[in-house]
Amino acid sequence: xxxxxxxxxxxxxxxxxxxxxxxxxxxxxxxxxxxxxxxxxxxxxxxxxxxxxxxxxxxxxxxxxxxxxxxxxxxxxxxxxxxxxxxxxxxxxxxxxxxxxxxxxxxxxxxxxxxxxxxxxxxxxxxxxxxxxxxxxxxxxxxxxxxxxxxxxxxxxxxxxxxxxxxxxxxxxxxxxxxxxxxxxxxxxxxxxxxxxxxxxxxxxxxxxxxxxxxxxxxxxxxxxxxxxxxxxxxxxxxxxxxxxxxxxxxxxxxxxxxxxxxxxxxxxxxxxxxxxxxxxxxxxxxxxxxxxxxxxxxxxxxxxxxxxxxxxxxxxxxxxxxxxxxxxxxxxxxxxxxxxxxxxxxxxxxxxxxxxxxxxxxxxxxxxxxxxxxxxxxxxxxxxxxxxxxxxxxxxxxxxx
Length: 402
Known about the structure:
Blueprint: H1 2-5, E1 11-15, H2 22-33, E2 39-43, E3 49-51, H3 53-60, E4 63-66, E5 71-73, H4 106-130, H5 134-142, E6 146-148, H6 149-154, E7 160-161, H7 165-172, E8 176-179, E9 182-185, H8 200-208, H9 211-230, H10 236-252, H11 259-277, H12 283-298, H13 311-337, H14 343-347, E10 351-354, E11 362-368, E12 371-377, E13 386-393, E14 396-401
Parallel strand pairs: 1-2, 2-4, 3-5, 4-7, 12-14
Antiparallel strand pairs: 5-6, 8-9, 10-11, 10-13, 11-12, 13-14
Helix pairs in contact: 2-3, 3-4, 4-5, 9-10, 11-12, 12-13
Domain NfeD-like C-terminal: 352-401
Transmembrane segments: 204-226, 257-274, 281-299, 311-333
Organism: Fulvimonas yonginensis
């Protein structure tokens, strides 16, 4: 660690997290347990939290403190698919027992019990190592229990409440901590504090793993690929969409994604694209819009603190999609009401624009009805002049100045 190489006396880990992957949390805890210098964990600033995996990290600290108006807990493990392993323990359940809930298969029941019991044993072992409240640790895992800073200090979950890092160092001064197989008394009064901010990679990962940002990246990727499919050779939508999609998928693997919601989003976007390619006066589009909106709401497991896509963003995108659908339907109905003309009389009196100059009784190219036509005119006209169709002879149009 950089702090160890720089000769630090202690490491202060300031934390505000809704949780994260169990594997990442265990790596952090393992590093703290193997540290040659004490690690002081502070949940700060006010309004911060040490939820889910953050609870384990707080328990692993040699000194655990929380700022006022912070909270800790809700440490029940949640699979990435978004299903809680077991029902949280209800009030009155015996300690060490999990609530019951219908399970689709005995194998899933056994696997869920193993995950939950492993998490309980892990957090209890950290509590016993640091001399903290092991009974509440089990409640935090089995029943998703939470505590405020004052309640946590009163119940022995943390050592004390500290306003900030200087207050933490002042209150930790003179305390004895266990560092491996020896005891160490902290002497922290008046020591210099050096900050180690996250590097660029960590900050970037922190941004893309925000549920709302990951959701927007996923949408940008899907829309980019759809635009590339509708306009082959545009390149930019396809390249940008592919990058956004891959980055969004990387972010989603770190979040508790509900795959039913993800499938509904994909179905919805597919139906909306089908409506744009083959209009059905709204039948496919309305179904796609409903599937997309429902899937967006379901995408993240809302039971996990902090892992929710902003509903305002979902509503804004749904409104934009609804407006686009209404425009497509309006254009389809308008086209169906337009008088259709065929054969030569239909082109008579049509207007066009010369793409190149034309000489008297000479031939040139003009844009008529959005198509390139070879035209012939009795008088010379410059490029860009407006012309009117007089008659058609095969693939040649006779025109005159408009």
